[in-house]
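I am writing to request your help with a piece of structural work I have in hand. A protein sequence and the structure tokens that stand for its backbone fold form the material at issue. Please examine both parts with care and let me know of anything in them that strikes you as inconsistent. The record follows directly beneath this note.
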Amino acid sequence: MTLIADLKTLQPRQRSAIWASYLGWTLDAFDFFLLVFMLSAIAKEFGTDIKAVSEATFLTLAARPFGAFAFGWMADRFGRRPIMMIVILLFSIFSFASAFAWSLTSLFVIRALFGFCMGGEWGIGASLVMESIPAKLRGPVSGLLQSGYPSGYFLASLIYFLLFDHIGWRGMFMVGIAPAILVFLIRLHVDESPAFERRRHEKPANPLRELAANWRIALYLVVLMTCFNFFSHGTQDLYPTFLKEQHRFDTHTVGLLAMIGNVGAIVGGIGFGVWSERIGRKRAIIVASLLALPIIPLWAFAATPVMLALGAFLIQVAVQGAWGIVPVHLNELSPALVRGMFPGFAYQLGNLIASRNGPIQAGIAESHGGNYGLALAIVAGITAVVLVVWTAVGPERTDVDFLAEEAK
């Protein structure tokens, strides 16, 4: 009841910032995950294999840190709100353009440009919200924001379930223009971050100098986010392929199982985000990561749709439960003058290092007779253990006064 009462005290501008950032990340993830449902169809049209097409996911992920740095720098210089609108408009356009790829190479180029634009959204949206709300609500709101990612995956699953058999992979990408509508809502209802407004007229910080001055925490967070990205992409990106190629499920079964998994992800992200206000950021990450280990055999090796659905739900409760802490944890550990750039850049550099996940898992599966379940289990199990250890040795800051930091 206390949480509900605290949420009711939020001002309209604070609620608008939360929903805009949540929807931005939801629709960003929606556009990204459209591709993972279509690897087989694209491979068939271009006369290649799934491993080759999975390079598109690698290029998308690899381009994201460059976008995070460029757009994050602009957000620290010109404001979170206008740059967030530009980012959403651009990644929507490139998602739509993916429908008109005339070759595998052209698709790779378009998806890399999409990834560059996509890279800017998370860090800017997270800093806008975390700088706009009371400290005591950062954990719960962090869980909500990060739940935008599985929400986007859920939407992509739903669109695949309903439309893929009718519109094909090119039509699916055309649906990806939809997030552009959010730009108009942000323009009308979202205010600029109070922390940015406080220093709007001051000389902007040099991002490279700030990175050099804070290189220890930057290095720690990049390794942390490498683990996190192997954890999420290692349990998500090839999951539809696992269901289609190994279990031979039809479109509706694949879409339904993916949706069930993402319901679990939303439950985990919000639940552990709320819990992190009680037990701390690090402890919440560690508990969620440990919970994944006993679930992996059920998730990767179950034989029936019902047991696979249970495994999908539970594994994503754990994976996205850990992820639910990421927005607040990274913002609380970030240097104040580059909070628009620093969390997103660290996140996306981790993504860059983990961006070979898709081809790695596809290679493991192919070398074991198409056993995608084994490939998923190996990556998820190793990553969970490493994530627990690395989180345990790292720093933690809670209840940071962002406005007071800006005033220094």
